[in-house]
Prior knowledge:
Layout: H1 7-41, H2 47-73, H3 79-95, H4 97-166
Helix pairs in contact: 1-2, 1-3, 1-4
Amino acid sequence: MGLIQSPSLVMDQLFAFTEAVVLGAALAICFDVYRAVRFQIRRHLLKLLLIAADCLYWIAAALACIIIIISRRWGEIYFYSYLGLAGGFSLYLVMLSRFLLPFWNAFFVRLFCFFSQLFTFGGKVYRVLCVPFCWTTRQTAKVAGQSRLQLNHLASRILSKTRRKYK
């Protein structure tokens, strides 16, 4: 009787294995997206920051696995769960990654170019709109400073004349 399992237990274990395969494939998709982003920013970041980003990715992946296993399987981890995670990850990398990674690379190249152009355009708009405003403000401050000096001089002359009258 110990070797024969009920159909619901077998289906439950098959469903748990399938969930692990899907989770492994989802982690592999996230890994591909991360690699594409990392490829775009590696020229601009220090090597130490890239190592830290790698560590953060794997920590996030481990936390995602733990959270999903706890929420879906009440924390029960069996050998087939590990096989499913590794199998889903490997299956995606072997079968789909070679097609989707170039897509992700091209997508992020276009995305980073778009933001670069947007910031360049924003800089041009800043120069067109704000630089004349700043120039006007500086000129106004100069005039106000000169006016203040002239007003101070005029006030001191007026006050000095009134002091003379009352002495």
